[in-house]
């Protein structure tokens, strides 16, 4: 008898494919988190044997010139899968050579293909086997072998499953290798960093260069195990060693040679003397380099130690086990050499510092005053106050005198701000009257050249009547630039002799520059306030106009609709096709106009409505909007992927409009998809939350993305997608009122991502 219900082979195949896919997804997820080879082998062998019902499995990896067993599961050592040379023929080598899986489905097929396999390995072949090559970036890693105790016909789905699994296993092994290499590099770099930290700490407080050189050699011994290093100084026209590593004690001939002194023309010393740069010699040749008793070294480097443009010492390093200098090792040696050079420079600098103490003290006072001025300049936008505070600071740092801020009014220079007594009532009277533009060089020159003018010995005949200014000994005048234009001259006349040194000039230039920036900021603040007030008034007028127009448009639209209906009823039935079409166009246009008016009113109300700040749970808002979509469009099949959403501060009703606009937009533009996918998630941006909605709909051309949030602007045809094109514009206004912004990204045919960013509530 035959079975009344023969098996449904396509259905069984589909079930098998689904089961394999589930296994593949699970093993892929597990492998993504693994970084150890043993764990990777355990996961792969477990899942593949479970999925296909295999007897056992083996992983063999390439190590040098051999293929070595790395892991087994469900097999014993009498398997034919054993360690072997890459030069020996075998299924594993062939699979790797062609990067193609090998399948042996019936008893004897493996032995028939490889007759010597059992004899060579001492094992017994399984009934059926699969050999899967493991490669990463074209580099062979090894093979996975699966054995079966029964004949096994590998279906296309199984073969695809095994090949995909092998790819993921190879990628996981390559990741593990990279992670191991990275960890080893991190350990090496950490050791280097710790050595440099110790060396840097020692260098900071050490002024004895020879002692520091000894510490540098200790560091290099850690970084270059087995190296030889030495510190040389110039003495009697030769390079003589002053410090060296202890291994030179075991090389008495070499030590005696360098203690006796090396000639200046020794190549490894002469080259850095000529260039002032370190020299790295690969493939060291002692005869060629004229350096006796150094035959054991393979690479050598020297670093010239220069102070004030003159080379005063040399630091040398020799390595016996590395014929070439890597870029990293060069960088390490350069760093140590630079530290030694800095130590020499520090010794010289200490001598110079003693002579500069007075000037540094003056600079310190200036910096302290400037810090106070910078703070004060940030507290006000009153121009006169800013100028007076700058002048007060400058006078506090200089010998007796006064400060004035000069500006052009008509054809005269007028002192619009003044701090201090000018020293003569007659001079004050003349200043009140003003000085002629073009006849007062001390003011005219800085204004024309935009450069400061420092006069160490002021000439009383230079500007005005000598008898008015004969009590002034020195003068500095500096242009104050605001918005790229000279707005005034900052003048500091002093009563006694004074030389404008570098510190004085730096203080004055910096103060005047900061004053210009502060005045520019004050002007910008004034303009911003005026623009804000104007914009606010314009917005209020525009909103009122929009609201009024929207209401006023209602009446003519109703007339169009009503009289269109009356016209239809007054015409004899049936209507001609042309008349029917004309009346339909009138009705549709009126409906569209009503929709536009509704949109304008909605935007106007959202703009005028007072914000009611409260805690808004966006999870609940999105859930409610999704429910409304489900009720309104029960026929739509939408795959919602909603992540955790934050609680934000804002107006719940208005924020719901924003969420509705984004969700409706995603639903509308995915209706042509067989399977609509809408993702919703939030990102913590530190000071703000960003909420994003992504769909797989028609998308848009990013070239025109700036039009998306403009009223009545659409990137798709009206007949394809209905609506008034106002919801996103309204959403942007609402989000802007909350202190946030809207975003949009998309590509034609691949969907779009819309979102909004809201600031977090202040603590």
Report a brief summary of the structure.
This protein has 19 helices and 25 strands. With 763 residues, it is of the alpha+beta class.
Q: What does it look like?
A:
The protein is of the alpha+beta class and 763 residues long. 49% of the residues lie in helices and 21% in strands. It is built from 19 helices and 25 strands. The strands form five sheets. It has a six-stranded antiparallel β-sheet, with helices on both faces. Helix 2 (37-52) packs antiparallel against helix 6 and helix 10 (327-377) crosses helix 15 (502-570). The longest helix is centred in the last third of the chain and has 69 residues, at 502-570. It is flat. The model has no long low-confidence stretch (mean pLDDT 83).
